[in-house]
Design brief:
Length: 265
């Protein structure tokens, strides 16, 4: 009686195992280099020290983590909503494109650290400036990708639909927006990482709660392991939200994907 042959690992499983092994190797090399060179904790703490901080200070860090995550998701949602609306207007109207796009490029070129003090003057220190900073930094990638997706609708297809009696609104909702979904989800994976940048930037300037505020206080106290612990928390949250965006993208735009996501597949 022949013994069954174990099925080989799928390509996706192998890719995930290789990613986990590479991540583990990175932290192992980091730990060994720090121990071998005797580098000061004020310069570069060891991963084991960062893990100890995350474990022992978890009750302290958890409320700040929730605050940063909530603020980021709120600003991200508002930015995506505003970006979709503006992108639809720009992508479906040549006049709106010519008028609004230069303004958007100019506003996007302004360093966001320069607008945080303005938000503080307008709304006071706290959560609102962080939400607004997260929102404004998320808008531009969404606008550009939605407008690009709408602009890529073939003129011949629009002409055929008009001949069949479709109005411009019908073409936008039934053809333009579905075809722009891959562009939209590509922008979401960029915008979610930028949203964290905006939140932490505002928290370091004008907030008394959040991971950004924790990192600012820790750096003032020369508590470098705590600063790195904050960076690890931000990285984990960013990766998880990126993974969620990729999962939703796969469910909604699987028809447009010719190969797996290079990061999350």
């Amino acid at each position: 009686m022949s013994t069954p042959i174990a099925s080989p690992l799928s390509a996706k499983t192998r890719q995930r195992l290789m990613s986990a092994a590479a991540l583990a190797a990175f932290f192992l090399v980091w730990e060994l280099v720090c121990r071998a060179t005797g580098v000061s904790d004020l310069i570069l703490p060891r991963p084991s020290q960062i893990a100890e901080v995350l474990w022992t200070k978890f009750p302290l860090l958890w409320p700040h983590t929730v605050q940063t995550l909530t603020t980021t998701l709120t600003g991200f949602a508002l930015g995506v909503l505003a970006g979709i609306v503006i992108g639809m207007v720009i992508g479906s109207s040549k006049l709106a494109y010519d008028v609004a796009y230069p303004l958007l490029v100019g506003f996007s070129s302004i360093p966001k650290v320069a607008v945080v003090p303005i938000f503080v003057v307008w709304f006071g220190a706290g959560t609102v400036p962080a939400v607004l900073t997260s929102m404004v930094i998320s808008i531009f990638p969404v606008v550009v990708n939605v407008a690009t997706g709408l602009a890529n609708t073939e003129p011949e297809l629009e002409d055929v639909l008009r001949v069949l009696g479709a109005k411009k609104r019908d073409i936008l909702w039934n053809v333009g927006l579905p075809r722009a979904l891959p562009y939209l989800f590509a922008s979401l994976k960029i915008a979610i990482t930028l949203a964290f940048v905006g939140t932490v930037l505002a928290e370091t300037v004008a907030a008394n709660k959040g991971i950004g505020n924790v990192m600012m206080i820790a750096s003032g106290n020369f508590d470098v392991p705590m600063v790195f612990a904050g960076l690890v928390i931000l990285a984990v949250m960013g990766v998880l939200l990126y993974a969620v965006s990729s999962l939703v993208e796969g469910r909604m735009t699987g028809w447009a994907q010719r190969k797996n996501d290079p990061v999350m597949a």
